[in-house]
Write a structure and sequence with these properties.
The protein is mostly helical. Helices cover about 35% and strands about 5% of the residues. It is built from 4 helices and 3 strands; from the N terminus they run H-H-E-H-E-E-H. Strand 1, helix 3 and strand 2 form a beta-alpha-beta unit.
């Protein structure tokens, strides 16, 4: 699928054990179903599941699931409501482990 091609193209494959797409769920974002399913698949609480999103709808879904969210918007004009926990304009020079540590250190995630 397209999601796997993007992950592989960005050389992020080693950081993802599971990839869920629209075909994995019944309810679409902003419903949090996909993120609740993801937490269930990896057997963690949603507050410990770091979500990477590129759209306001995805950020809403992740926040509704109770997960910390790193937004990687497709352009700088996007408005996020609610706000993600962090916004990055590119993966360039980012270490995914550092992003996860940053987001998981915020214990205020509801």
């Amino acid at each position: 699928e397209m999601a796997q091609k993007i992950i592989d193209g960005a050389r992020l494959g080693p950081f993802f054990k599971h990839v869920l797409t629209e075909s994995s769920i019944i309810k679409r974002k902003p419903d949090p179903e996909v993120y609740k399913l993801a937490a269930n698949r990896v057997r963690v609480n949603n507050k410990d599941l770091v979500i990477h999103e590129d759209s306001p709808t995805g950020v809403r879904a992740a926040k509704a699931a109770g997960s910390p969210v790193a937004a990687f918007p497709v352009h700088d004009k996007l408005i996020f409501e609610p706000s993600p926990d962090a916004i990055f304009m590119s993966w360039k020079n980012l270490d995914p482990r550092e992003v996860m540590e940053l987001l998981l250190s915020k214990k205020e995630v509801k």
